Each structure stands twice: as structure tokens, then as C-alpha cells.
């Protein structure tokens, strides 16, 4: 019961975050191709953030799947993750509207790093209370290498943003695509858990 | 469990999309009939898109009904559909605010086409993993003819938009009404599935 | 299953409608009591509409409670109700921002009438498919008198709005309060249905 | 069933409230550190309100956990709580945009007091219908002392806001942190209820 409501609330918040971002794509007053094309950076930012939030939703889903008892620590780590994700529409909009200006890309990368850190805290809070062996959690832990590469990418993307912001955005894009590719171990563990 | 959360998340996103569109109907500062009537194109666009998103919700519902195991492919096809639907408030607002200007109607039709394509990918992703015979899916597949007519309508509506935008909107309206009429086969299969 | 998703979707849409209305209370730039008090008509409109949407949510809940099979007719009547409710943030905002100007109050009353009509269609669509006797539905039908009084109030409120808009708003307020008072028969039927 | 829908609706509304607050952090047009730092008061207000709404969500969750029959009284007390929470994005935005000006902080404290009062009404409405002994409710009632301290803090924070607004905000922050620390008794009762 407890867990169902935590999932429902998180789903609600994530669904709203992913959808209100589109409100930052301000409708142009002219009906010209030029006006539409001027939105390209805003649109690219939106696509990237949609992808990123979608990935967090999927991973969140897997993490919560392994939970038995919802502890206060899990609730607060989850709130921390939702909070950092709630800043994504802001950092996305700022980056898009300012055509990937240095500082805005750096902040966007910081936001990603912050989200990743909160997801890490959530994972640890869940691990703390896993009494029995759990194949799904084991599979999630095997993605550690991928997590560390991602953190490294963000840590590089932040300073790079001040010199080559486009490279920085590309790096974040690569890390997103990396997570969008489903992990075989996690999938197998999920399949088994369902059976 | 898995499927429930996918449905809940999709429901959340679709519910938000269908509702935030109303925010694009900007409240006029004057309390006159003239100011109200000036919103007619925005309102018509809203009605059309509300109908369209409602239809997608219904069809999405039927499609997901046939799913047993949620695969990564299904998740990503579903995300693609939600992404393309999330652009509807933007294309609707642009079209309405610019009184069905040529380019805006064309983009609106492209958005419809894109949503239809994503729904098609979702259907295929689901079909890939249907091991047993499924009456509901069979009924859905029988709507193929309707799907092809719809695609044809959109493909015609895009170029037509540049010459007779109103005709183009009317065509999209017709295709929406076509889908709003419930399909006897799908209904029967749903009834049977419930029993 | 079917019904659960219809409820979930409706809950989502109603929750969003009731919450985005607050976005119409534009934050004043001055931190003065005068700026705050200038929002009084907007705030009163918000309170009234919050109450009204909350009542619809409760009644919707009761109506859906009696449903066994979700038919296409029920889905579309429900969509019609959600559509008319989705216009409430707009009509509320227009009325509030224009300090209960004649036309805006009339439109607000029309919106109420429209919502009532859609709820009536939904009730009929549900009645069509009730095969067995249903205590809850019987109790709901006993509220017919209240429904007719409400419709009469709205029908009076529309023309009155053009002469005494404040009286019109007061009438709508009275009808809302009338519905906010729980109906003994419905409550008893709900209690019994749960046991 | 009844209760599930009340929870789902409340979760939806709270999820939207907590998320649309971020829309009040207006995206600056310049990509400078100065423009970003100018948002500090808005950001601090957001963090405080996010924390506060998150706490209400958790406590709401616990309260509802003890409910057996959803009575009209519970529904309306719950609506009252949701209504007062729905004003938080407004009072938060006003306070943030005006850099913690006296009046805005006072109103923010009033909003907190109002939410607390509604939560108190909800608790009483639930207590009215608890027939059997309930460990969780007993644990919740043991937090009475904390509730009274909180009310006292708000009552002090309102007048203090007119002289030292920052002290007032700090007081509210302290009360939030006080509630964010999980209550041992409530946790134990929840654990036992689950077993």
C-alpha cells in the first residue's frame, strides 16, 4: 500500500515535470518558418530533457520494484530526486532560450549531476533495507560502471560548457542514449521477478 | 505491476497534455463579446485536439490491454507516442493563435502523422511479444483499413494546408470523428475479455 | 480494469483542472495590501470554482461507482464532462479578472449549465447499461429534484448576469453549497455498497 | 475503493501543486550569473515550500492510512486541506518575487497556519469514525505536542514578519525541518500495520 502510493506520487510528479516542459516552448506570434526554426535550440533542449526524465522514470521504476518496506530514508531520498528533477524544466528552458550559452549549459550539467546524486542516495536507502538477496537489485548494482561513466561525463561536461558548450550538450546526450539502451541483466531480472 | 505503472504514467501524461492545452486559450482583458469571439479559432483548435488526444487515450488503453510483459521496446515506443502527443499543445496553440495560417495547419497535420506513426510503432512492439492468440489484438488489427485511410488523410492534409488550410483542418476533423465512432469488433473483444 | 483506468484518467484531469486554476491568480509585483486586495474578485472566483469542481469530482465518483461495463457511450459522455470542466479555469479567470463583469458571469453560468448537461448525459449512459437494481443509482436518481433546481438556477443566472451580475454569482454559489451538503440517501447507499 | 480514489485524487493534486511551483521560477532572459543569482529568494522560497508540501504529503498519507470508511466530513476536510495547499504556489511566488517583503512573509505564514488548521480538521474528521483502537492513529496523536509547537511558531511568525521577515522565514523553516525528521512512534506503528 505504502509503496503503491509512493510510486503513484512519484509517477504523478514525473509525468507533470515531463509535460510542463513543453510550456517553455513559447508559441511564436508569427506563422512563419523562420519563427518556427528560431525555436530549434528550445526544441533540442526539450527532446534531450524528455529523454532524460523518461530514463529516470524507467530506472526509478526498477529501483522501487526492489523495495519491500518504505522507510523514511527512502521517502526523503525519493523527494530529493523529485526535487532535483523538478528543476529540469527551469534549467532546460534557460539553456534553450539562451541558445546553449556557456553558463546555461554548465547549470544544465550540474542539474544532471544533482539528479544522479539523488538517485544514488535513493539506491543506497533502498539497499539499506534489503534483507534478502534480490536479483533485480544485483542487476541494478551491475550498472555501477555505467553510473560512474555517467558521473565522469557530467563532471567533464561542466567545465567544458564554459569553452565548448555544444560539446558539453553532446556529452550529456551521449550519456542519455547510453541509459536509453536497455540493460540485458536488468531486463532478465525483471522478467524473472514477474514470473 | 509493471504494466500498471506504465498505464498510470501514460494516463498522467495524457491527462496533463489534454488539460494544459486550455492554458493556451489566453484570457482576454476585455469583458466584451468581441474579445470572446476573437478566440474562436483558438477554441476550435482546442476542441479538435481535445477530441484527438481523447481518442489516443482510448486506443492506447485498448492496445495496453493486450500486453502481458512490458518490454523495453514497448516502453520506448510508448515514450515516443507520449513525446509526440506532448507537442500537440504547442502545435494546437500555434495554429489557433495564427487563425489557421497555412504553415501552422501543415505542422499540425505533421504532428498528427507523427503521433500516428508512434502509435503504429507501439502496436508493433506489442505484437512482437504476443505469444498466444488475442481476440482484442485481432480486432485492433482489423482497424488497419481505418489506420491507412487516416494516414492517407494526413498525407493529403499536409500539402493541402498550404493552399486551403481550412480544408486541411476539416480533413483532420473528419479523421478524428472517424475514430471517435467506436469499433464494433474492438468493443465486442473488450467485452469478452472482461468476462 | 477498464473502469479503473477511466477513473484514474478522470481523476488526473480533474486534479489538474482544480490546480491549474490557481495559476490564474497572477502574482502581483508589489508587496502591498492594496495589490493583494485587488485580487479579491479573482480569489472569490477561484474559491467558487474549486468548490464546484470538487463537487463534480465527488458526484463523478458516485456515478462511476455504479458502473459495471464501461461502454463507448460512457467513455464519450465522460470525455464531454471533462471537456466542459476543462473550460472552467478559463471562464473562472475571465470572470475574476474582469471583476464579475456582466458577460463574463453569464459565460460562467453557461459553463456550469454545460457541465451539468454533460453530467446528465453521463448518468443516462450509465443507466442504459445497469442491468440489475442498484441502490446507489436509485439514491442518485432521487437527487433529481436537486438537479432540476440547479438547472433552473443556472437558467435564471444567465439572463440575470446581464443586469445584476453579483446576484447571478450568488445564485451559482447557493447551488454549489446545496450540492456540497452530503445527501443522506447517497451516503447510506455508499455505506451499504461497501459492506 | 472509495479510499483509494480519495488518495489518488489527493496525490494528483499534491503532485501538481509541488510541481507547478517551479513555473514561478521565471526563466531569466540573460545567460549571466547575475541573472541566476537574482533568483536566489525565489529559489529559497521554492525549496521551503517543496519541503513543506512534501511533509504534508507524508502526513496525509499516514492519516489516510487509518481511515476505514470515507465519510463526507473526511472528503470535505480533505478538500479544505487541498484548497489551502493549492494557495502555496501563489504565496510562495509572491514572497520570492518580492524578496521576503514583510507582508508577503506574513501571508506565507498565514497560509501555513491555514494548512495546519485544515490538517487538524481532517484528523478530527477521521478520529470521529475510528471505531476500534488504532496504533497508527495513537502514534499520530502523540505528535500533538509537535503540532502545538508548530502552531505557536506560525502564530509568532505572522507578527514577527512585519519587523524581521527573515527571522519569520527562518522560524517556518525550523518548523518544517522539525516535521521532516521522521517520528519513531509513527514509523513503528506503520511497520506493525504492514505486518
Which labels suit this protein?
homotetramer, 195 residues, mainly alpha, 10 helices, 79% helix, globular
Overview of this protein structure:
With 195 residues, the first copy, chain A, is mainly α. The first copy, chain A, has one domain. In chain A, 79% of the residues lie in helices and 0% in strands. The first copy, chain A, has 10 helices and no strands. In chain A, helix 5 runs antiparallel to helix 6. The two termini of chain A are 21 Å apart. The model of chain A has no long low-confidence stretch (mean pLDDT 89). At the B-C interface, helix 1, helix 3 and helix 10 of B face helix 1, helix 4, helix 5 and helix 6 of C.
What's the arrangement of secondary structure elements?
The structure is a homotetramer of 195-residue chains.
Chain A: H1 2-20, H2 33-37, H3 40-65, H4 72-86, H5 88-97, H6 102-128, H7 135-141, H8 144-161, H9 165-180, H10 184-194
Helix pairs in contact in A: 1-3, 1-4, 3-5, 3-9, 4-6, 5-6, 6-8, 6-9, 7-10, 8-9
State the gist of this model.
Chain A is an all-alpha fold and 195 residues long. In chain A, 79% of the residues lie in helices and 0% in strands.
Amino acid at each position: 500500500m505504502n509503496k503503491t502510493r509512493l510510486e503513484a506520487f512519484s509517477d504523478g510528479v514525473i509525468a507533470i515535470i515531463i509535460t510542463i516542459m513543453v510550456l517553455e516552448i513559447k508559441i511564436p506570434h508569427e506563422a512563419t518558418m523562420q519563427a518556427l526554426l528560431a525555436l530549434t535550440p528550445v526544441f533540442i533542449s526539450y527532446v534531450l530533457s524528455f529523454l532524460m526524465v523518461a530514463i529516470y522514470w524507467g530506472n526509478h521504476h526498477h529501483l522501487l520494484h526492489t523495495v519491500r518496506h518504505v522507510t523514511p530514508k527512502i521517502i526523503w531520498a525519493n523527494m530529493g530526486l523529485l526535487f532535483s528533477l523538478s528543476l529540469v524544466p527551469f534549467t532546460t528552458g534557460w539553456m534553450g532560450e539562451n541558445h546553449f550559452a556557456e553558463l546555461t549549459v554548465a547549470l544544465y550539467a550540474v542539474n544532471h549531476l544533482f539528479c544522479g546524486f539523488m538517485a544514488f542516495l535513493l539506491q543506497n536507502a533502498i539497499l539499506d533495507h534489503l534483507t534478502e538477496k534480490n536479483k533485480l537489485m544485483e542487476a541494478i548494482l551491475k550498472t555501477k560502471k555505467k553510473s560512474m561513466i555517467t558521473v565522469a561525463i557530467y563532471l567533464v561536461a561542466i567545465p567544458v560548457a564554459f569553452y565548448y558548450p555544444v560539446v558539453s550538450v553532446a556529452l550529456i546526450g551521449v550519456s542519455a542514449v547510453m541509459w536509453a539502451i536497455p540493460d540485458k541483466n536488468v531486463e532478465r531480472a525483471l522478467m524473472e521477478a514477474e514470473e
